[in-house]
Amino acid sequence: MRPVIALVADVIADPSVHTTPNTVDISPTMFKDTILEAGGLPITIPYPTDPRLIPETIQAYLPLFDGLILPGGPDVDPTRYGEEPLPALQATNPPLDAFELSLIKATYAAGKPMFGLCRGSHMLNVAFGGTLYQDLASQNPAALRHLQATSGEYPTHHVSLMPKSRLAQLIGDTAYVNSRHHQASRTLGAGLRLAAKAYDGTIEAFKSEDNDLVLGIQWHPENLWQDAPVQLTIYRDFIQRAAAHRQPMGLAAASPAR
């Protein structure tokens, strides 16, 4: 039986729908296809518009999935990690931030693996007490170009994997990756360990120190594996971990987040 992998939905404006508001909950097709190819069964979970419904919504979702993917999306509200907004900060989505932070804590408490990509890795880091660059280019002028101008399925810079790390065992000591972000993890949260970095020192991946429940990466292997099959092993490993931590239906409700 395939492990069920939940993918948090984003919300975008849809001008083709003649209702008010003209918004739609979405998850990109590339994630669905990659999860299926790697052996998982994807489901999309939208966040409630009313924040008062977040706790009960999360408790209802938790028994339904074995692993959680947090995808890319808008900037993270800097007040979530103790900063005021800088001029280069782009649009945020406070309801999504609130939902994902609560979901991360509940999923971790329930012992289910989590995989964050791009913004998703930022949310994982913030949930564990880490901080972000609100805008990497303006806050670190020595940084490489991390918001690539070319199409997102093409790699544009290299990353160095930490020796003997699980990620290095999967894809090697270096990787050529795509890069579609202007924010980045700045300091890692409690219990997180560096797993990869760019040649300018930017954090490109991290994992949990004491277990295998947390992985955050800055790039998008779901866009790369068709031409670089080794990138699919990152998803396969995550889905295998989700299967290993699978809990009987009805026993997956989380204890209160720590």
From TrEMBL:
InterPro entries: Class_I_gatase-like, Peptidase_C26, PuuD-like. Gene3D superfamilies: 3.40.50.880. PROSITE patterns: GATASE_TYPE_1. Pfam families: Peptidase_C26. It comes from the Bacteria. Keywords: Hydrolase. GO terms for molecular function: hydrolase activity. The keyword Cell membrane does not apply. This is Gamma-glutamyl-gamma-aminobutyrate hydrolase family protein. It comes from Lacticaseibacillus jixianensis.
